[in-house]
Amino acid sequence: MGEETVSKNFIEQEIDKDLAEGVYSEVCTRFPPEPNGYLHIGHAKSILLNSGLAKKYNGTFHLRFDDTNPMKEDMEFVESIKEDVAWLGADWKEHLYFASDYFDVMYECAVKLIKKGKAFVCDLTADEIREYRGTLKEPGKNSPYRDRSVEENLQLFEEMKEGKYKDGEKVLRAKIDMSSPNINMRDPVIYRVAHMTHHNTGDKWCIYPMYDFAHPIEDAVEKITHSICTLEFEDHRPLYDWVVKECEFDPAPRQIEFAKLYLTNVVTGKRYIKKLVMDGIVDGWDDPRLVSIAALRRRGFTPESLKMFIELCGVSKSQSSVDYAMLEYCIREDLKLKKSRMMAVLDPIKLVIDNYPEGEVEYLDVDNNMENPELGKRQIPFCRELYIEREDFMIEPPKKYFRLFPGNEVRLMNAYFVKCESFETDADGNVTVVHATYDPETKCGTGFTGRKVKGTIHWVAAPYAKQAEVRLYENLVDEEKGVYNKEDGSLNLNPNSLTILKECYVEDSFKDAKGCDSFQFVRNGYFCIDSKDSTSENLVFNRIVSLKSSFKLPK
Q1: Cβ distance 81 to 43 under 8 Å?
Q2: Which residues of 200-225 are buried (b: 16+ CB within 10 A; e: fewer)?
């Protein structure tokens, strides 16, 4: 047999080429989030791609906070990002950094550019700079302050640093080419005045670098070899390379772009999520209806399921959207053999087995997961009074309804055959109690072959059941209308995105479960214990995903 061919994505092919040609002797990657919100599913792709490349090439992975904009940043976001990255299994070891760690270096680089005649202090307002920039079809025109002397620029920049100017009064701009076809190269602003307290550096600085200037310097200082980012930064690459070259860094990091991960019918924009949080429409940045990493974790998704999802999406240069159903497919695949299949009744009515001895209880041996014997067995109590699902009984059933109705017999899962004899209703005609008789010879596992039944239903023993709250989640977005309202840009929200069931009953086996533990509720879906609201006295379950899916993996 010949050697197996291992398919590599285009980034791996480029890294192989760089290593073979001796451009770099090792690989160093980074994930550089801005701490101005919680990370979402798209960030997971970047985290797993960058950390995965470092691991594959026995290199180094850095986590670096791009905290150059104190207006929007917060330590809450720093801590949440660290938790998310660690949860996904991306280990930065001792390589945790902040862009603000390099503010002194960035300032020195700016001074170097001024001395080389490559940067100048400009007095134009933001609107005027925009006006002078030109368009995609017309070149820009030079600022009237572009030809200031090196000495004057050094003095003005020092005065900016000393706090002598108001916000927006002066900026430092790179001196490149106002006629460049790439608008990013038309003398971009690289420093601005901002009298704000920074979460990391306090009040040391009142000037802050712009992202396009700071980012390549951060990469170069940390000796990042491959700066892997998304396609919107492709047009910024010439400026990235210009900064590294003119600031005289060697070796120079290399920027490579890949396509973003777009998921259908979800909200990922930080501005929109922040408004949902502020308006109380969702329960914080980790509301399980969102696709922030914290929300997916709280909902019950696993790191393994997200890795599977990202691998199925692949890495390419072409933009495309992925159906949310594929993410659901991945969590089902991950959980189906790992988790116990437990019994829970979400919409209960009582089933009384009239011929079962009052006060008696027996314990039945049940497989935790019939597809995975390694998960072992547990014992569950069985007695005279049980809870069953309301939909498992009908007074006048349609054809091919094989569950309980007067005169019909079904199997109680892992227990006995029972036959419906009668039922009770309240004043409004709602069924409150179903009465049945059981056949003691039909106990599950006894080898009974006397007759067959077509229906099997689940149940919990009423005296031993634990009451629980169950939260059923649907898409936050109205899928028929799409995410955004075309008229005003607002979100098209689904009013039924959350259903809370307060009076559910689960088997006693849940008594030792803790936050984030997940299970299959037989016939109902996969659920996990809410890490935020659940207590030992008040169990709260989030539905991760239903059991059935229309999604099929492409062949």
Answers
A1: no
A2: bbeeebbbbbbbbbbbbbbbbbbebb
35 and 145, same structural domain?
A: yes
> Is 20 within a domain?
yes
Domain assignment of residue 531, given as a range: 341-546
Handedness of CA 508, 509, 510, 511 (dihedral sign): positive
Residue 194 three-state SS: coil
Alpha-carbon gap, residue 532 to 416, rounded angstroms: 38
Q: How far is Cα 32 from Cα 47, in angstroms, rounded to an integer?
A: 9
Sign of the four-CA dihedral 282, 285, 286, 292: positive
Q: Answer for the pair 391, 347: CB distance below 8 angstroms, yes or no.
A: yes
- pLDDT at res. 512: 81
Helices within 248-374 (DSSP H only): 270-278, 293-299, 303-313, 324-335
Residue type for 380, please?
I
Cα–Cα distance measured from residue 383 to residue 393, given in angstroms and rounded to the nearest whole number: 19
pTM: 0.91
Ordered DSSP codes for 507-550: -GGGGG--TT-EEEETTTEEEEE-TTT--SSSEEEEEEE-S---
In a domain, 459, yes or no: yes
Identify which of 110, 18, 33 has the alpha carbon closest to the alpha carbon of residue 64: 33
Our CA dihedral for 153, 158, 164, 166, rounded to 10 degrees, sits at 70
Q: Burial of 152 by CB count in 10 Å (0-12 exposed, 13-18 middle, 19+ buried)?
A: middle
**Of 230, 258, 286, which residue is a domain's last?**
258
- Please state the domain count of the chain: 2
Taking alpha carbons only, the member of 241, 192, 200 closest to residue 220 is: 241
Alpha helices in 314-466 (DSSP H): 324-335
Question: Read out DSSP for 52-89?
Answer: HHHHHTT-EEEEEE----TTT--HHHHHHHHHHHHHTT
Residue 178: inside a domain: yes
Q: Can you give the CATH number for the domain in which 492 is found?
A: 2.40.240.10
If one counts every other C-beta atom within 10 angstroms of the C-beta of residue 158, the result is 14
Strand partners, 350: 387, 433
Between CA 39 and CA 16 the distance in angstroms is: 30
Q: Where is the domain boundary, 202, 224, 258?
A: 258
Pair (57, 180) in one structural domain: yes
Return all residues near 462 (Cβ < 8 A) that are at least 6 apart: 350, 383, 385, 386, 387, 505
Q: 2 in a domain, yes or no?
A: no
Q: Mean pLDDT for each consecutive 10-residue tract of the chain (555 residues)?
A: 66 96 96 93 96 97 94 86 97 97 97 98 97 95 97 98 96 98 97 93 95 97 97 96 97 95 88 90 94 96 97 91 93 96 97 96 96 96 98 95 96 96 95 97 86 94 96 92 82 94 94 89 96 91 88 66
Scanning the structure block, which residue is given the tokens 């170097």? 112
Locate all alpha helices (DSSP H) within 69-210, ordered by sequence.
Answer: 75-87, 103-115, 126-133, 150-161
Residues near 539 by Cβ (< 8 Å), separated by ≥ 6?
466, 467, 468, 469, 506, 510, 513, 529
**pLDDT on residue 551:** 67
Spatial separation of the C-alpha atoms in residues 258 and 315, rounded to whole Å: 7
Spatial neighbors of 429 by CB under 8 A, at least 6 apart, are: none
Strand partners, 505: 345, 467
